[in-house]
Design a protein that fits this description.
Keywords: Membrane, Transmembrane, Transmembrane helix. By secondary structure, the protein is mostly helical. It folds into two domains: 68 residues, no CATH class; 56 residues, no CATH class. The chain is 67% helix and 5% strand. It contains six helices and two strands. A two-stranded antiparallel ribbon has the order 1-2. Strand 1 and strand 2 form a beta hairpin. Helix 1 runs antiparallel to helix 2. The longest helix has 27 residues. The protein is elongated and about 90 Å long. The mean pLDDT is 84.
């Protein structure tokens, strides 16, 4: 049987588990609120304050339901923490340059940004990418059509 996954708030979830979690929330939070509203109405508490307390009980039941749903339906994904090799970064930078244009010289970045790039370990990759693009541009013959268009 194929699972149906939905995207909710930027996360991928199993549709059946989402429905069961919602039903669990309605099944626990609504009776908790109604029972609390009835219970507080039987006391000497002001009616407006009794409703507020009942809402707090209902919200607490919602939080409890969220914890229960998280325990009953654990995440299905497996995150793998692996070091990225230089080849995959190079491919990613090539794809970014193809779509958005040159990344530029990392030495021209503002000092704070340059420090952050160095802390992330991306400086060498950006410098290598910049040198590769500069070498490509130097080796490429000048296109006579582009020179003619520039002179217009």
């Amino acid at each position: 049987m194929k699972r149906s996954y939905l995207e909710v708030w930027g996360d991928t979830v199993d549709g059946r588990h989402l429905l069961l979690s919602i039903l669990l929330g309605v099944g626990l939070a609504t009776p908790a609120y109604l029972l609390a509203a009835w219970g507080f109405s039987q006391t000497d508490v002001e009616p407006a304050l009794a409703k507020s307390y009942a809402l707090l009980v209902g919200l607490g039941a919602c939080v409890l339901t969220g914890v229960l749903a998280a325990r009953i339906f654990p995440p299905k994904r497996v995150l793998v923490d692996a070091a990225a090799d230089a080849g995959s970064r190079e491919e990613a930078m090539d794809a970014i340059e193809a779509e958005y244009g040159p990344l530029g010289d990392p030495d021209e970045l503002p000092a704070a940004v340059l420090r952050e790039v160095q802390e992330l370990g991306l400086y060498e990759d950006l410098a290598r990418q910049h040198a590769k693009r500069a070498a490509r541009e130097a080796a490429a013959p000048a296109d006579p059509r582009s020179e003619q268009e520039a002179n217009r």
